[in-house]
């Protein structure tokens, strides 16, 4: 029987994560810790005996580098990789590049919290989580899910919010509960799917 394996990995810590900046579609590199997190993700998957047939990532270098480092640990540097902006992080618009504490001073704690944690309120010039779902989910349904259901073992390295869009469907979250679903950097989450595309089991390799 085909395995129907889907593994999601959030990129390792980026330079702007470290500096507490809104990142979105901006393209900072991984920190030294982020590099280690990416390598550790690959090492964890290797230790559990996982191998992959195809990988997907965003058009942002922190996700691409995380994927490359993980695949190097897995000994799968020649794996086919598809890069698409549909898997990019949520676009934070006018907040991109701003320090989160400075943004709270400028707009107030409550407003910034609403932009960051509500489901459908976008920051100025940017995307809400709902907008990110509308961008990411169709790509999952048309490009990633069919590969999984065909029996391919699929690895996706992307971002906190683009992965939440997938997790919303996989784990059957509501608009209220998905905003509280945390994803550790560099921690693989492993889904085995049934033939009808619903989840049979979840294994979280965080920690």
Automatic annotation (TrEMBL):
Native source organism of the sequence: Ancylobacter rudongensis
Residue sites binding substrate per the record: 10-17, 23-24, 62, 89-92, 100, 116-117, 160-161
One GO-annotated biological process of the protein: gluconeogenesis
Family: Belongs to the phosphoglycerate mutase family. BPG-dependent PGAM subfamily.
Keyword Cell cycle annotated: no
Catalytic activity: (2R)-2-phosphoglycerate = (2R)-3-phosphoglycerate
Name of the molecule in the record: 2,3-bisphosphoglycerate-dependent phosphoglycerate mutase
Subunit note: Homodimer.
Key words of the record: Gluconeogenesis, Glycolysis, Isomerase
Pathway connected to this protein: Carbohydrate degradation; glycolysis; pyruvate from D-glyceraldehyde 3-phosphate: step 3/5
Record PROSITE patterns: PG_MUTASE
EC number: 5.4.2.11
One Pfam family here: His_Phos_1
Keyword Isomerase: yes
Molecular functions (GO terms): phosphoglycerate mutase activity
Function according to Swiss-Prot or TrEMBL: Catalyzes the interconversion of 2-phosphoglycerate and 3-phosphoglycerate.
Site (Transition state stabilizer): 159
Taxonomy, superkingdom: Bacteria
Active site residues per record: 11 (tele-phosphohistidine intermediate), 89 (proton donor/acceptor)
């Amino acid at each position: 029987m085909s395995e129907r394996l889907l593994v999601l990995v959030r990129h390792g810590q980026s330079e702007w994560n470290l500096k507490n900046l809104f990142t979105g579609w901006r393209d900072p590199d991984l920190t030294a810790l982020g590099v280690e997190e990416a390598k550790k993700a690959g090492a964890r998957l290797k230790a559990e005996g996982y191998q992959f047939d195809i990988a997907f990532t965003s058009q942002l270098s922190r996700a691409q580098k995380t994927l490359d480092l993980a695949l190097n640990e897995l000994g799968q540097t020649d794996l086919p990789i598809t890069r698409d902006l549909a898997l990019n992080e949520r676009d934070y618009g006018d907040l991109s590049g701003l320090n989160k504490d400075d943004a709270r001073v400028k707009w107030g704690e409550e407003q910034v919290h609403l932009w960051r944690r509500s489901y459908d309120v976008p920051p100025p010039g940017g995307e809400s989580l709902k907008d990110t779902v509308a961008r990411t989910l169709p790509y999952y349904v048309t490009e990633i899910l069919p590969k999984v259901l065909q029996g391919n073992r699929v690895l996706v390295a992307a971002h906190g919010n683009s992965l939440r869009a997938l997790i919303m469907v996989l784990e059957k979250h509501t608009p209220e509960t998905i905003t509280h679903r945390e994803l550790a950097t560099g921690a693989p989450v492993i889904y085995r799917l049934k033939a009808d595309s619903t989840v049979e089991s979840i294994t979280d390799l965080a920690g």
